[in-house]
Design brief:
The protein folds into three domains: 168 residues, Beta-Lactamase (2-Layer Sandwich), CATH 3.30.450; 94 residues, Helix Hairpins (Orthogonal Bundle), CATH 1.10.287.130; 171 residues, Heat Shock Protein 90. It is 56% helix and 16% strand.
């Protein structure tokens, strides 16, 4: 949970993005800077090494050129002095080594003066460098690794040039310079760059957090207050302590909250007035309606003694009083729901038998409209603990609506049960519903076709009351429909009223629509 909140945090996203971009920038700049500095340090070392080599070769050639009467002993002495004087004791820090290598194969008549300082292996001079030195009249160089007989290896730079030894011929003289100091400097530079980069990233992240916190904190407060609004607490307000853009946002938010609170209070008052009006009118109409019913029953029972027109009027009066009584009963039921005093009378009964009874009671209506009712509940015993009167009212309403809108096409009723839940689906293939109407079909006094509803005598309260009855059991009533494809209503109830339902046992969008629809 905490990980999800961090991933969805605006502050974390901003800090992460800033640090990541800074890391990429520092990497590019640091790499370029390190490359330039390392090239500069090595170039300085290379220039000085080439100068020292040229000077050493010039001095050696000068000594060989002015030998009075050269012989093997004199030349050997000069070579020994050159190697000793041109090298240091060890090249492990800043010193240098010397290698004097012959350029041509040795003959029997000639003495071999090839030698190196400090027992450095002649193989440290790359063959590629030797080849270039032999072909060149100037100085050539190449990186190498200085190898000692004791096994030590250090990075180095070999710089060489040819030299002529009297009575012997051409030799190659190489000065091998240690790069230990330069590499240590580059390692230190790399370490400092890394430490500096990490420190700067930390400081950038810290500064970004401080800046973002000032911006995000009011937004988080606004989100927290908005969440409180969803619970019905409209008394929360944002703190406004400055005059900047965030403060203006807080002021606007508070003004919006005050306006919203005022509108909700006004609508709640109107709703209470409406509910009180419906309840009062419903109760006040019961007494005169009872009187009218008694008088209508007297007139209706004696209609045989009246003229035909008067008798017909007596029948119409009785029918309209029946409709008025149903409307009054619906209004009283709605007022009970609004007042929160609707209660369940729990009994244990077989809902399969209840469905069959509702079908039997509405069979004459179905026959008049040419509608066949198909039900899969026959023979199944499905016991539930619920308010049988309210469940029957739901089923009668759904089945009656399906018959009315079926258009002489079959109506299917499906009963499904699980361990703790039952579901009843009522499917017709008549005029159907618009997709938008499926969300409004349970609104009070709403009719998909008001003119047809008035012909049938509907009030627009049946489905609304059915939904309230279902929810009173902790169940659900859902609707689906498409024009010309019919409608499908699904009632889902717990087997024990008040318990939770296991889920949706019947798919709301019917399977037969999948095979022909979108």
């Amino acid at each position: 949970m905490r990980g999800t909140r961090l991933r969805n945090s605006l502050a974390v996203k901003v800090i992460f993005s800033t640090v990541l971009l800074s890391l990429i920038l520092f990497s590019l700049v640091g790499s370029a800077l390190y490359s330039k500095l390392s090239d500069g340090i090595l170039n300085v070392k290379l220039d000085s090494s080439i100068a020292e080599t040229r000077s050493a070769v010039f001095n050696a050639q000068y000594r060989f050129s002015f030998v009075g009467k050269p012989n093997n002993d004199v030349i050997a002495s000069i070579v020994k002095d050159l190697v000793a004087n041109s090298a240091t004791i060890s090249a492990t820090v800043n010193g240098r080594e010397v290698a004097l290598l012959r350029s041509s194969p040795l003959t029997k008549e000639k003495v071999d003066y090839q030698s190196t300082s400090n027992l450095v292996s002649p193989s440290v001079i790359p063959e590629e460098l030797r080849s270039r030195v032999r072909k060149s009249l100037g100085t050539e160089w190449a990186p190498t690794t200085i190898k000692y007989v004791n096994g030590n290896r250090i990075p180095g730079l070999a710089v060489g040039q040819t030299i002529t030894i009297p009575t012997v011929g051409r030799y190659e003289m190489y000065l091998i310079f240690s790069l230990v100091s330069q590499n240590a400097t580059l390692d230190l530079l790399r370490t400092y760059l890394l430490i500096t980069g990490v420190f700067l990233l930390f400081m950038i992240g810290l500064l970004t957090w401080l800046v973002v916190r000032q911006v995000v904190k009011p937004v988080q407060e606004a989100a927290r207050i908005a969440e409180r609004f969803t619970t019905g607490d409209f008394n929360q307000r944002m703190r406004v302590e400055s005059n900047d853009e965030i403060a203006r946002l807080g002021t606007s938010f508070n003004e919006m909250a005050s306006s919203l609170q005022s509108q909700i209070h006004r609508l709640e008052n109107l709703s209470l007035v409406q509910q009180r009006f419906v309840s009062d009118v419903s109760h006040e109409l019961r007494t005169p309606l009872t009187t009218l019913r008694m008088a209508s029953d007297v007139v209706h029972s004696a209609r045989g003694t009246f003229d035909t027109s008067i008798a017909r009027s007596a029948e119409l009066l009785a029918a309209q009083l029946d409709r008025f009584e149903r409307l009054l009963e619906d209004l009283l039921e709605v007022s009970r729901f609004d007042a929160g005093v609707a209660v369940l009378e729990i009994v244990k009964f077989d809902i399969s038998e209840l469905i069959e009874r509702c079908i039997a009671d509405l069979s004459l209506v179905a026959q008049e409209r040419g509608v066949d009712i198909e039900c899969n509940s026959t023979g199944y015993l499905v016991l539930i603990e619920a308010d049988s009167r309210r469940v029957e009212r739901i089923l009668r309403n759904l089945i009656n609506n399906a018959i009315e809108y079926a258009g002489a096409k079959p109506v299917q009723i499906k009963l499904v049960e699980s361990q703790g839940t039952i579901a009843v689906g009522v499917r017709d293939h008549g005029v159907g519903l618009e997709a938008e109407s499926a969300f409004r079909v349970f609104d009070r006094f709403w009719r998909a076709d008001p003119s047809r509803a008035r012909v049938r005598g509907g009030t627009g309260l049946g489905l609304s009351i059915a939904l309230e009855d279902a929810r009173l059991h902790n169940g659900e009533l859902e609707a689906w429909g498409r024009p010309g494809e019919g409608a499908h209503f699904v009632l889902t109830l717990p087997k024990q009223a008040g318990q939770s339902i296991d889920g949706r046992l019947i798919r709301l969008q019917p399977i037969d629509y999948y095979s022909t629809g979108d």
